[in-house]
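In response to the reviewer comment on reproducibility (Comment 2.3), we provide here a single inverse folding case reported in full, input and output, so that an independent group could reproduce the run without further information from us. The structure tokens appear first.
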């Protein structure tokens, strides 16, 4: 009986360590909670470049890290903003992309990340503008910088073009050309608001 209990405990410990050892990849949806500041709690998606955006921490390379390693990086970046020495940050994988989804990969997608309400990948079957994609993602989040929105477009050769869009100017009727039509694979980055935004 004691041997069976020990065996069950060992298997349980191995499963926990295997979950901790899982590395993050593009497309993973992460649930991040900050015990000391619940308004920072959010769900983020690891973008195609392997990064996440998080308030007060900026852009962080997450691909290849374990959730525990990402927790440690977030703690280090957030620590200067809090007096409490024991900052408690938890990173959990909400859902990971399935390994074999060839049909899903064939659908034309754009990726919306950063300060939007529902970051993630969105299938676009018809011509879609930048503002339409932001609307699909639920609109701007509370910390969004509306003057520095980026569309990152990678060419087949690997070169990346970055388009910058000022929503404030667009709203005033000035930057109408900035609301570009998106292409498959475009990454929309809505950065967090800076001190002077």
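Designed residues, in position order:
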């Amino acid at each position: 009986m004691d041997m069976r209990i020990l065996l069950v405990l060992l298997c349980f410990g191995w499963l926990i360590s295997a979950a901790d050892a899982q590395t993050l990849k593009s497309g993973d949806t992460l649930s991040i909670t900050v015990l000391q500041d619940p308004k920072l709690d959010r769900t983020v998606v690891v973008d195609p470049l392997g990064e996440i955006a998080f308030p007060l921490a900026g852009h962080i390379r997450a691909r290849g890290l374990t959730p525990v390693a990402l927790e440690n990086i977030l703690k280090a970046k957030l620590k200067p903003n809090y007096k409490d020495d024991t900052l408690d940050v938890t990173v959990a994988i909400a859902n990971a992309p399935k390994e074999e989804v060839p049909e899903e990969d064939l659908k034309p997608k754009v990726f919306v990340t950063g300060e939007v309400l529902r970051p993630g990948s969105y299938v676009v079957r018809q011509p879609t503008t930048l503002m339409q994609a932001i609307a699909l993602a639920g609109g701007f989040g509370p910390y969004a910088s509306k003057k520095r929105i980026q569309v990152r477009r990678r060419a087949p050769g690997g070169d990346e073009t970055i388009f910058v869009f000022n929503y404030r100017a667009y709203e005033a009727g000035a930057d109408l050309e900035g609301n570009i039509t998106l292409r498959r694979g475009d990454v929309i980055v809505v950065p967090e608001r800076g001190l002077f935004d």
